[in-house]
Amino acid sequence: MKTAKTPSDYKRWQIIHLVRCYSVDADYLADITGYSKANIYNIVQQFNNRQGDVSTKTKGGRRRELMTVDEEKILMKGLEDKALKGQILSYRDIKKIIETKLDKEVSDDFL
Fold first, then answer.
1. What pLDDT, on the 0 to 100 scale, is given for residue 54?
2. What is the mean pLDDT of residues 58-82?
3. How far apart are the first and last CA of the chain?
4. Which of 43, 21, 46 is nearest to 33 (CA)?
């Protein structure tokens, strides 16, 4: 538990400790940790399969790319220039420009 870097990792180590040292059942652990019973079983299984590792991979970053970072920089520079000239009034204007560049429709939360 001392090596845990995140609260989630600490909780996972607590679960492993209680299961291995005190044979605590999944129902009780689900009540005190806030995880579901299925998650408790998955954490223990993950510990057993990974030979003692319970850390989770962090999510974030680009999972799928619609354009490269360089293309995005060029696009953003163009958008900045248009915005400074007053040619962009709302996100819909930006959305249209991006959809034209990508030649596909993007969701509102893309921006």
1. 72
2. 79
3. 39
4. 43
